[in-house]
Amino acid sequence: MENEKIDVTDLTITLELDDGSEIECDVLTRYPIDGQQYIALAPCGEGDIEEIYLYRFAEDEDGQPVLTNIESEEEYEIAADRFDEILDEAEWEQAEEG
Length: 98
Fold this sequence. Notes:
Elements: E1 12-16, E2 22-33, E3 36-43, E4 53-59, E5 65-68, H1 73-97
Antiparallel strand pairs: 1-2, 2-3, 3-4, 4-5
């Protein structure tokens, strides 16, 4: 399994929050914006998702996920807006199928 790419949507990721606590999250999706990858996470086990965590996403030389904080408010807004669009597209597709 050397250098095998990981399908991050099948993963859970443990995040360490600013206060030092940890939270286990499901990967909702990974998506690109202008050559930069982003990832959306939600706490595991929550039926109604109330909190979403957005990060920059990359893979290291071994194909392992690497998350980094989105530093600027402008970049965060762009990433959040695109994630909202992805959710809207998914809802639209479900409505057409149903």
